[in-house]
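User:
Hi there, any thoughts?
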Amino acid sequence: MTAQEILLKYWGFNQFRSMQDEIIASVIEGHDTLALMPTGGGKSICYQIPALMKPGLCIVVSPLISLIKDQVEQLRKRKIAAGALFSGMSMREMDITLQEAIDGKIKFLYVSPERLGTEQFQHRISNADVCLIAIDEAHCISQWGYDFRPAYLRIAEIRSIIKECPVIALTATAIPSVQGDIVDKLRFRNGKVFIKSFIRPNLSYAVLYEENKLNRVVSMLQKKSGSALVFVGTRRRTKEVSDFLLQHKISASYYHAGLTSEERNRRQKDWIENRIRVMVCTNAFGMGIDKPDVRMVIHYEPPQNPESYFQEAGRAGRDGKKAFAICLYDRADIIAMQERVQTQFPSEKEIKMVYHVLSGYTQVAIGSGLGVSFDLDMQSFCKKYDLPLIPTLNALKTLELEGYISLSDAILIPSRVMIVVNREQLYRLQVQNPRAEPFITALLRMYGGIFDHYTTIFERDIASHLNTSTLTVEKALKALHQQDYIDYVPATDKPQITYTSPRRDTQDLHIDTFLLKKRKESFQLRTDAMIHYLETKWKCRTQMLLQYFGEDENYRCGICDACLRRHELDVSDMEFENIVGAIKRVLLQESITQQALIDILSNIPKEKVGTSVRWLLDTNLIREDESGILYWIT
């Protein structure tokens, strides 16, 4: 089938979005391909369709378990065979999934980055017929990016293990230096780069300095109708803001990783299906959720960098209709952002101490533990060892950056079961053990394919079917597991920590302090860029984001707060350009003060000259020295 026919058959669309067909053609022609497309731009189709056009397996590397789960479920709903490997799965489950991939029973194999370096994966995948490697969130491979994941560096190893096949790297947020790093680290051959404009013409950006944020959020939501997201910085604040909205008769709920998986799923569904208008959430919410009709995204506190802001704000207006992205801030936010630069990077001594405590917590012996995963509840971990939460989390993140461990997101991984004996052995058990019989019968009746592959089960449903308690079902399944009749993997919704390197003696732990310093400098630059975005009043918001991401910044959106502020001057675009032209002519001849400039341009109202000067300063077309002299920058 052609790409167009596959698009229609599986997705029901008659035509591609902008640039999708060009990217697909590049992959089909065998080019290594980098695709930069804004959030909601349809990146997944760019690797899924070319993979479906070729025989063989497509390996997809993705950093978030929530995204992996979502993609696998979406493909299976379209009757496309897909599987996944990530922390929290049993070794047997991963082995069977790998074998299905090798045998051609799976078309798409989603892999978390920490699985790439395991001996199990590398040995088995060398026998697979791989047609394409797709890397989602490809900016994670760059140590100068905002979300570096060292495990991504193992992708280059995979390229040398399997037979030659193209790579497609996809991301929504990569500045030019990170783009170059992606191409280099993935060892592009015959590569092509596609960059879709970061312009969102329907999205109106605004930044508001606000001391009373709660009332401002209420005011904005009362003025504009439609579904909305409010991002906040802490779990506690999600409930505070949600409760305040409810007090003002605004339909709202809250979401954070500390809620039970059942509650998270219910609230997410209520919001997606518009039973709840406003979701107040931490940034744990929203990844992989495709809700096109979000009319407003409000940031109660600013993110630390423009990449995070662009991605989160970009969840508004995916249907192409007018939408708003508003970021609130006050002086305390700026101070907190600046202080975070220091607290984000603990000392070498602190990092080693946390590693030592972690080794005791997981009870892993020196030289062992490679690829082994453990549940890690940060709150109880820090409480047990009397550790400060934020510095400890940052120390763990540094250990992840150094390649010793990996941290997965907290997401519900449902229970899975596979029967590991044949039908005759199972029947014999049913006859010999009447207490086990009803549980085995329930599994066989309720879940098909349980002899062939790991099947998601729900203990509560089995308990309801047998008119017993969930605890009784769990005990029965664990007993069958211990007797080696089934492989039972209980559900978990806790974050997972995985040793990506055998546990070392703390004295032998190597922390690259030079690289840590460089990462801190990079973090500082991104923080400075975000603060600049917040504090600049006269430059087009879209223009600033375009400039940050290396795109031509001459575009002016006309609908952001800065552009609207310019319109309030009652100056047409033509008049504004004439004023700017007059200022330029004067300053190219002589550098003078603003007052002297106003005196020379006496035929133009002084307010308009002053406003235009401020705009030119903010757009870096002119500069002002300490004595107030203005210079045109050529």
